[in-house]
Write a structure and sequence with these properties.
By secondary structure, the protein is mainly β. The protein is built from no helices and 17 strands. The strands form four sheets. Strands 1, 2, 4, 5, 7 and 9 form a six-stranded mixed β-sheet that branches. Strands 11-12-13-15-17 form a five-stranded mixed β-sheet, with no helix packed on it. The protein has a four-stranded parallel β-sheet with strand order 3-6-8-10, with no helix packed on it. The chain is globular, with a radius of gyration of 17 Å.
């Protein structure tokens, strides 16, 4: 972008951008709503990867209030030191493998305006596999430092990378689980 603080992939046809990385030294990264490139504004609609040219031990990702980020792609945070993310109210989809490589991720803050995701008991992230259903039936992520968990009986699918880097010593999986992904 023109400020040289962030890296983006630009879609000139649709006037959108995907956040790709940062040159900031800050541990708190706030992803803007719009990026300016060559005097044109592009609406940021996704996170496609986090590439940080400056290393930090702990990273917190936040979004501007009126964010339009609706999708977080596979490996978006891979090998980063992300510990916390605040999902914007615009978030609709977490692609398969969105949390791959997130060894330090411990906290997910979800806007109360998002009806698709819940970070339950400050331990695990669940979602609706079908947005038209009322039931939250898919496990997407378990905090990496949890040692024991009982997966709720309403869960039918355990998503890819849900337990990657986990410290799980004991797990209880109900008979309702019909699919365990990568």
């Amino acid at each position: 972008d023109d400020s040289k603080n962030f890296l983006f992939k630009i879609d000139e046809t649709n006037k959108t951008a995907s956040f790709y990385g940062s040159n900031q030294k800050s541990q708190d990264v706030i992803i803007p709503r719009i990026v300016k490139h060559e005097s044109k504004d592009y609406l940021i609609t996704s996170i496609c990867g986090l590439h940080f040219t400056i290393s930090c031990d702990s990273l917190k990702i936040k979004f501007e209030e009126e964010s339009s980020v609706s999708t977080i792609y596979r490996n978006a945070f891979s090998e980063s030191n992300i510990e916390e993310i605040s999902f914007p109210k615009s978030l609709i989809e977490l692609k398969k493998g969105w949390c791959s490589g997130t060894e330090k991720l411990r906290r997910i803050i979800i806007s109360p305006l998002i009806g698709q995701f819940i970070f339950k008991e400050d331990k695990y992230l669940i979602c609706k596999s079908n947005e038209n259903d009322a039931e939250f039936d898919k496990l997407l992520f378990v905090r990496r430092d949890i040692k024991e968990i009982s997966i709720p009986r309403n869960i039918k699918i355990i998503g890819s990378y849900s337990f990657e880097y986990s410290k799980i010593e004991e797990i209880s999986i109900p008979a309702s689980v019909t699919k365990i992904c990568e």
